[in-house]
Amino acid sequence: DAGVIQSPRHEVTEMGQEVTLRCKPISGHNSLFWYRQTMMRGLELLIYFNNNVPIDDSGMPEDRFSAKMPNASFSTLKIQPSEPRDSAVYFCASSPGQHYGYTFGSGTRLTVV
Amino acid sequence: GENVEQHPSTLSVQEGDSAVIKCTYSDSASNYFPWYKQELGKRPQLIIDIRSNVGEKKDQRIAVTLNKTAKHFSLHITETQPEDSAVYFCAASFQAGTALIFGKGTTLSVSS
Q1: Which residues pair with A34 in a beta bridge?
Q2: pLDDT of chain A along its 113 residues, tens only?
Q3: Residue A50, SS3 per DSSP
Q4: Hey, of A99, A103, A108, which one would you mutate to test binding to chain B, going by the most B CBs within 10 A of its CB?
Q5: Which of A12, A92, A107, B15 is a plausible cystine mate for A23, CB 3.0–4.6 Å?
Q6: How far is B30 from chain A (nearest CA, A)?
Q7: B94 three-state secondary structure
């Protein structure tokens, strides 16, 4: 298995632009998670899905952030419009279910200038 | 909201010494406690986990202990080596579900 696949690895964009991050979970994993990592705030849970259904999006910072999971093999995290304070590493992770560890993707390093 | 506190934030040891990292959690319903290691510029990787029906688990030089009454758990690394240098994160499940809340991390430096 190729693991959790995220794209792009790096994204540099100008303030106000739309940014879309993509994730392909491990086949057979029914839980998918989006986290944001910064030095100041550590690993923050943004949103997670079970069986493609969003369960908890209380970590999404504001309405500029949205996430979708149209099928079991694909998810997107969109920021529109982007702001410099959104600069961070965004990780996607998947899990077979409760009481199992996550497998993280390589992350997307987002820089908003 | 739910919270996981991790201490210390940085830890420096000599090669061969032991290292201990401690975490406390707030959700009494938490029942799954994994530890992750993240090397610089890389993804977090699961190194060991423990479930609430177990008090201790070992895997070679790594062990984790859990005290559910006190709501804290610890990572123990024995005979540390330079390649153990990394950031270590504890985590706890919340709402008895699949999502994990992570501690802020401990930067471990092992000098030879």
Answers
A1: A47, A92
A2: 689 999 999 999 999 999 999 999 999 999 999 999 999 999 999 999 999 999 988 889 889 999 999 999 999 999 999 999 999 999 999 999 877 889 999 999 999 99
A3: strand
A4: A99
A5: A92
A6: 10
A7: coil
**Residues B12, B111 contacting (CB under 8 angstroms):** yes
Note which residues in 31-50 of chain B have CB less than 8 A from chain A.
Answer: 31-32, 34, 42-46, 49
Q: Are A55 and A33 in contact (CB under 8 A)?
A: no
Q: Which amino acid is at B32?
A: Y
Interface probe with B: pick from A41, A45, A90, most Cβ of B within 10 Å = A45
CA distance A16 to chain B (A): 27
Structure tokens at B94: 């919340």
Q: What amino acid is encoded at A106 in this protein? A: S
CA angle (A100, A103, A106) in 5-degree steps: 165
Q: In chain A, what are the helix, strand and coil shares in percent, each to the nearest 5? A: 5, 55, 40
- Taking only Cα atoms into account, the Rg of chain A, rounded to an integer number of angstroms, comes to 13
The C-alpha angle B64, B25, A46, rounded to 5 degrees, equals 105
